[in-house]
Design goal:
heterodimer, A: about 60 residues, mainly alpha, 2 helices, about 0% strand, B: about 475 residues, alpha/beta, Amidase signature (AS) enzymes, 8-stranded mixed β-sheet, 3-stranded mixed β-sheet, about 15% strand
Chain lengths: ~60, ~475
């Protein structure tokens, strides 16, 4: 069950910039519920120290 | 010629001039024509190219100038691998008619090794949207039972290899797309360490999770294909600038003295597996013990944590790649891919960064846990392949996958057949090793394969001598 209101869902979807019909928007509600659950788990506090796992080689930035 | 030689067996016959590469290519093309109306493993059968490659190989054979064990061996390329002068569609309407100017680095490397390109193989749309039924080409079908899923996204490579149309081919693996079709189609597939194989010229899905690698019938065949594909590519910013060792070095050497950790909590508690899959895991652990390895349970972070990291990293990266088309040609995508992609545009930048921080934490935790082990044993898939029409649009999020941890950490991992389930389709185990330990990983997998009977059985459909009705 999604915890996001319909208005918030539509606003978030609008930010993607992808033009969607009403039916296409409705079809995404089910999938977004899974995303919400994942994001809630991800937002567990982890302090300021842990670095992201990006790969970056400065010597290649010439 | 035996009906389904391995690459090694075929190579020996070619080297002895007992097997003509041209006749071999013709036999594989004939098998493709018989079976592909049912399997849909190919987007494009490159018959002229195959026969030209085979003729060149045959000329080398006659001159005693063979390039190695892959010379004259028919393979196929997942259709996200660019092929110069040959259409590369990514199984998508978006790239229909796209003809690249240059080969992907790995395609060129395999061509330089003398392989014969039989065709371009089905995939999930852009390696993420499948199995889809609203695209210009149908999804590939499992040769063990065409009503069932092949796994994906390297679906055509899995199906064509299991059916004996090709000896192996290329795949890509962002969340399990080599190991899933390898498991469901009963073949071998290896996702190497991140950075071992160039990604240049392969249609991207997720920059930090994409891996290139091979699928083949046997472990040794995978080793031979991976040996040809691997190596530093300065054009790939993630490519590892280090020499590639002999990846066949530990084949036939056994597992005596290795320490193998069984990730039991994953398949016994977090994602319960079928009885056949569980038996395969238990039998594999016992076999490795008998072969001289030390077996004990290993505690690793939850599969769920890897699933969250995978999804929250993969989706925004994929959305960023596809955003220009999503905003202008949304309806040209298949429904599965467009709906999966758009979720990536709904994830905040801060959440993407948090997922990358979680990834770092998971990498450190796995490195710590695996320090006393050489190999981790786990499932590749929880069950045998489901019926194709039952595959869920949201499957990536519904249940954690056994394959995600090796994408998040970049560790090399391999899926190999471990028997057959109640429905008669294959089940599989997965072995994971430390970074750049592919030779050890392949050696352990080959030791298992050599001691089990699973390579003696091919799908009944592949034995057809007449065209199989669609």
């Amino acid at each position: 069950m999604s915890s996001t209101s319909d208005a918030d869902f539509r606003a978030t979807l609008h930010q993607t910039g992808v033009p969607l019909t009403e039916a296409q928007q409705a079809a995404l509600r089910e999938g977004y519920a899974f995303v919400e659950t994942m994001l809630a788990e991800l937002r567990t506090p982890r302090g300021r120290e842990p670095e992201p796992a990006h790969i970056f080689y400065p010597e290649q930035c010439r | 010629m035996i009906p389904f030689p391995s690459i090694t067996a075929a190579a020996q016959q070619i080297a002895a001039r007992k097997l003509s590469p041209v006749e071999l290519a013709k036999a594989c093309l004939a098998r493709a024509r018989r079976l592909d109306p049912v399997l849909h493993a190919f987007i494009l059968l490159t018959e002229e190219r195959a026969l030209a490659d085979a003729a060149a190989s045959e000329a080398r054979m006659m001159q005693g100038m063979l390039k190695g064990k892959l010379d004259g061996i028919p393979i196929g390329h997942k259709d996200i691998y660019n092929t110069a002068g040959i259409q590369t569609t990514a199984h998508s309407r978006l790239l229909e008619g796209y003809v690249p100017d240059a080969d992907a680095t790995t395609v060129a490397k395999l061509a330089n090794a003398g392989t014969v390109m039989l065709g371009k193989l089905s995939t999930h749309e852009f390696a993420m949207g499948g199995p889809s039924f609203d695209l210009p080409w149908p999804p590939a079908r499992n040769p063990w039972n065409p009503d069932h899923f092949t796994g994906g996204s390297s679906s055509g490579t899995g199906a064509a290899t299991a059916a004996g149309i090709i000896f192996g081919g290329t795949g890509s693996d962002t969340g399990g797309s080599i190991r899933s079709p390898a498991a469901f189609c009963g073949i071998a597939g290896i996702k190497p360490t991140y950075g071992l194989c160039s990604r240049v010229g392969i249609q991207p899905l997720s920059f930090t999770l994409d891996h290139a690698g091979p699928l083949a019938w046997t472990v040794e065949d995978c080793a031979l294909l991976l040996q040809a594909m691997a190596g530093y590519d300065p054009a790939d910013p993630a490519s590892a600038d280090r020499p590639v060792p002999d990846l066949t070095a530990r084949l036939g050497k056994g597992v005596a003295g290795l320490r193998i950790g069984v990730a039991r909590a994953w398949h016994e508690r977090e994602v319960p597996v079928s009885a056949a899959t569980a038996k395969g895991l238990d039998d594999a652990a016992e076999l490795f013990r008998k072969l001289g390895a030390t077996i004990s349970d290993i505690a690793l972070p939850s599969l769920r944590s890897f699933q969250v990291a995978t999804f929250v990293i993969l989706s925004p990266e994929a959305f960023a790649i596809h955003e220009p088309w999503l905003t202008t040609r949304f309806n040209d995508y298949g429904e599965l891919l467009r709906d999966r992609l758009i979720l990536g545009g709904m994830i905040r930048g801060a959440d993407y960064v948090q997922a990358m921080r979680l990834r770092r934490e998971l990498c450190l935790a796995v490195a710590d846990a695996i320090a006393g082990y050489n190999v981790v044993l786990t499932a590749a898939q929880p069950t045998e392949a489901p019926r194709i029409e039952t595959v869920s649009k949201w499957g990536l999020m519904e249940r954690p996958g056994f394959t995600n941890p090796a994408n998040v950490t970049g560790y090399p991992a391999m899926s190999i057949c471990s028997g057959y389930g109640e429905g008669g389709l294959p089940v599989a185990i997965q072995l994971i090793a430390k970074p750049f330990q592919e030779a050890l990983l392949l050696g352990a997998a080959e030791a298992y394969e050599a001691a089990t009977p699973w390579r003696t059985q091919r799908p009944a459909l592949s034995l057809a001598t007449e065209p199989v009705p669609a």
